[in-house]
Design a protein that fits this description.
heterodimer, A: 181 residues, mainly alpha, 46% helix, elongated, B: 229 residues, Helix Hairpins, Immunoglobulin-like, five-stranded mixed beta sheet, 33% helix, 25% strand, Cytochrome c oxidase subunit 2 (chain B), copper ion binding (chain B), respiratory chain (chain B), magnesium (chain B), mitochondrion inner membrane (chain B)
């Protein structure tokens, strides 16, 4: 219960932006398989298990199970001559059966931009915390075996012991002239 | 020994090490082939030009995506088995030594050739001389002769450890109550480092291995000194 409410709330945050860069069809907003709906908001005339995708483009059952009102009238007209149907009527009938056209499915959404932005905000908070700890909390620097002098001495030791004579430091040292190759 | 920005396998000093490196390169080539094929498939599918006619089932597709992985696995598995039997094969060792793992140090014992028993503890970072390697230096190194067939019998006193020498491509588990045998033959003298490779408690990261391969004269002098000590 809590997780579904959280999903709805998060989706409402990412889906409401000032500019919609993709053209959203009305049928894409309503229906299962799209944005999350709570049980009390669900339309009883619609197929609750409707699913379509590029890999399964023709669903087993239409999106609308029960035709009411104008749609019922259009459904009766569909039986007759299609030339009597206007373009808008044909589009309504198409939208009542399918959720989205192939072109709509191929177009994709731009929700990723909101998600990416939210992720960047959290990452930046983490980086700021890391910077604060590094500047004000971490202890002062102590010597390590990665200091420049120590590294040079260890490389010299490796060359003296002929360690890595095929791909290591010794392979790049000119022993005859006592310098790097 | 590793340079500071090294990401490959180290140079091998044994015959088996060369074979292991070759097998590693072959396995990586197979993996690169698989990765490239999958990435190309991703790139091709992104264009959305493909229409799946038999999207509810396809016997040919199932056959292909079973056969090709099996073929790739067998092509990797057969050389791997060959190499495994090669490593474990019959080997006549001229010298035998024992390695015993403890918490948290190694001890080395002489076998049939000489009688000595020494413990090898890590030198702490505070006691290192400039140029020495952190977490790798020990107080008593194991000195062995090079160009000699040496048999090592490895066991443990308490918990499971693992005696590892990456430069010799060796990794042998030290299991309490069990003697694991491994053979060493180094082509050339040198100093080789390793670390315990099986989690064994608090100081698991602080029980290194240091083996020096020297000529016979130095080895005999060292062994005699150890025996008297």
């Amino acid at each position: 219960m809590a997780s579904s409410l959280l999903r709805v709330a998060l989706h409402r945050v990412v889906s409401h932006r000032s500019v919609h860069l993709t053209k959203v069809r009305p049928s894409m907003v309503i229906g299962f398989g799209g944005p999350v709906q709570l049980a009390e908001d669900r339309d009883p005339n619609l197929n609750p298990i409707f699913h379509e995708s590029l890999t399964n483009p023709i669903p087993d059952k239409p999106r609308t199970l029960k035709y009411t009102g104008d749609l019922a009238t259009l459904k009766e007209m569909e039986v007759g001559d299609w030339k009597k149907l206007s373009v808008e009527d044909q589009m309504d009938l198409y939208n009542s059966f399918f959720g989205a056209s192939i072109a709509d499915m191929c177009r994709g959404q731009d929700d990723w931009k909101s998600v990416f932005g939210a992720c960047m905000i959290f990452i930046s908070f983490g980086l700021l915390l890391h910077l604060f700890i590094h500047l004000y909390i971490n202890p002062p620097y102590v010597w390590t075996t990665l200091d420049e002098d120590w590294v040079k001495a260890s490389i010299k030791r490796q060359i003296q012991s002929h360690a890595g004579d095929i791909t290591g430091y010794s392979s790049k040292w000119d022993y005859a002239n006592n310098r790097w190759k | 020994m590793y340079p500071y920005t090294f990401i490959q396998l180290t140079d091998s000093n044994t015959f088996f090490g060369h074979e292991i490196v070759l097998f590693h390169d072959f396995s990586l080539a197979s993996l690169m082939f698989i990765l490239t094929a999958v990435l190309l498939m991703f790139k091709a599918l992104k264009k959305k030009k493909f229409v799946v006619l038999a999207y509810k089932g396809s016997n040919m597709l199932e056959f292909l995506w079973t056969f090709f992985p099996v073929f790739i696995l067998i092509s990797i598995g057969l050389p791997s088995l060959y190499l495994m039997y090669l490593l474990e094969g019959s080997f006549k060792g001229d010298l035998t030594f024992k390695v015993v793992g403890h918490q948290w140090y190694w001890s080395y014992e002489g076998g049939d050739f000489c009688d000595f028993d020494m413990s090898s503890y890590m030198i702490p970072s505070e006691d290192l001389v400039e140029g020495q390697f952190r977490l790798l230096e020990v107080d008593n190194t194991m000195v062995l002769p090079y160009s000699t067939n040496i048999r090592l019998m490895i066991t443990s006193y308490d918990v499971i450890h693992s005696w590892t020498l990456p430069s010799l491509k060796m990794k042998v588990d030290a299991v309490p109550g069990r003697l694991n045998t491994m053979n060493i033959f180094s082509f050339q003298p040198g100093s080789f480092y390793g670390q315990c490779s099986e989690i064994c408690g608090l100081l698991h990261s602080f029980m290194p291995i240091h083996v020096e391969f020297v000529n016979w004269e130095t080895f005999l002098n060292n062994v005699t000194e150890e025996s008297f000590n």
